[in-house]
């Protein structure tokens, strides 16, 4: 898939967000978890990729089926503040 620069930026942002599950990225951009891993490997620095992989590996909030029912949204309430 070919993405615009803003779409690439959004995929990276969503992948880094703790509360955004891989399923949301797949729904919006058509990239499953494995495709997101490949995408991130190609679009961020190797050191950043290692940090990201260690951060998301085993994180329950990155998978809709594993997350707690108390997590009802995909973002932190302070994430989209109006300035």
From TrEMBL:
Superkingdom per UniProt: Bacteria
Family annotation (InterPro entries): CHP03643
NCBIfam families: TIGR03643 family protein
Name of the molecule in the record: TIGR03643 family protein
Organism: Psychromonas ingrahamii (strain DSM 17664 / CCUG 51855 / 37)
């Amino acid at each position: 898939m070919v993405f615009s620069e803003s779409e690439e930026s959004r995929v990276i942002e969503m992948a880094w967000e703790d509360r955004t599950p891989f399923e949301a990225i797949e729904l919006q951009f058509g990239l499953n978890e494995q495709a997101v891993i490949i995408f991130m490997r190609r679009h961020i620095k190797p050191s950043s990729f290692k940090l990201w992989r260690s951060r998301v590996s085993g994180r329950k909030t990155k998978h809709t089926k594993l997350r707690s029912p108390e997590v009802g949204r995909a973002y932190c309430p302070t994430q989209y503040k109006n300035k």
